[in-house]
Amino acid sequence: GNSVTQMEGPVTLSEEAFLTINCTYTATGYPSLFWYVQYPGEGLQLLLKATKADDKGSNKGFEATYRKETTSFHLEKGSVQVSDSAVYFCALSDSKTGTASKLTFGTGTRLQVTL
Amino acid sequence: DVKVTQSSRYLVKRTGEKVFLECVQDMDHENMFWYRQDPGLGLRLIYFSYDVKMKEKGDIPEGYSVSREKKERFSLILESASTNQTSMYLCASSLRGGVGDSPLHFGNGTRLTVT
């Protein structure tokens, strides 16, 4: 079945540091890949997505590239801010269309950014 | 903006009680989902629905049931609550079609404690 593996956290960085959160996946077919973010006390919200190999998703300074050869979708940001402190979830969809495609989530990585 | 509203933020119930968790979305989405979120396990899909009165089991349906009598409302039912159902429950919705085309929109969650 489908699975997503994320690096364990917490990740603690100083403001303006470079961020990488690793994500690898196992899936049949051609899944779409996502990063969701959960700020304290809130539900998850979509951060970025990529729907096919070599696509780069980007939003709010975050980027991730869909690498089929390494089955990876690592999240990066060049300069983090305190406001980026949150839990980040990598996810993939099964490739069905026309019905409710399901997402498989990783376990989440907590990011703590300090001044 | 899509709004997914979960009726309770915190809930405390006793073992053996019947528990209803309610979720309402205001954007006419066809698909609705119930996840539970546990530390170290990420999000796991309990049930989902792609149309009124339709439901499908997710990865961990045991001990749960659902009801979707109206398009905007999706209820999660714990027939006889047990302590291992203490968790954060997240409701989500999306438009019909592949998840690659339509992201999930999440509510803020209900933290259920069963004593």
What does the average pLDDT of chain B come to? 92
Straight-line distance between termini of chain A: 41 Å
How many helical elements of chain A? 0
State the share of residues found in helices of chain A, binned by percent: under 10%
Question: How much helical structure, as a percent, in the residues of chain B?
Answer: under 10%
Radius of gyration of chain B: 13 Å
Order of helices and strands of chain B: EEEEEEEEEEE
Structural class category of chain A: mainly beta
Number of helices of chain B: 0
Topology of helices and strands:
The complex is a heterodimer of chains A (115) and B (115).
Chain A: E1 3-6, E2 11-14, E3 19-21, E4 23-26, E5 33-38, E6 44-50, E7 56-59, E8 62-65, E9 75-77, E10 86-93, E11 103-105, E12 109-114
Parallel strand pairs in A: 2-12
Antiparallel strand pairs in A: 1-4, 3-9, 5-6, 5-10, 7-8, 8-9, 10-11, 10-12
Chain B: E1 4-6, E2 10-13, E3 19-25, E4 31-38, E5 42-49, E6 56-57, E7 64-70, E8 73-78, E9 87-94, E10 105-106, E11 110-114
Parallel strand pairs in B: 2-11
Antiparallel strand pairs in B: 1-3, 3-8, 4-5, 4-9, 5-6, 7-8, 9-10, 9-11
Primary descriptors:
heterodimer, A: 115 residues, mainly beta, six-stranded mixed β-sheet, four-stranded antiparallel β-sheet, 12 strands, 49% strand, B: 115 residues, seven-stranded mixed β-sheet, 11 strands, globular
Describe the structure in your own words:
The complex is a heterodimer of chains A (115) and B (115). By secondary structure, chain A is an all-beta fold. Chain A has no helices and 12 strands. With 115 residues, chain B is an all-beta fold. Helices cover 0% and strands 52% of the residues of chain B. Chain B is built from no helices and 11 strands. In chain B, strand 4 (31-38) and strand 5 form a beta hairpin. Chain B is globular and about 40 Å long.
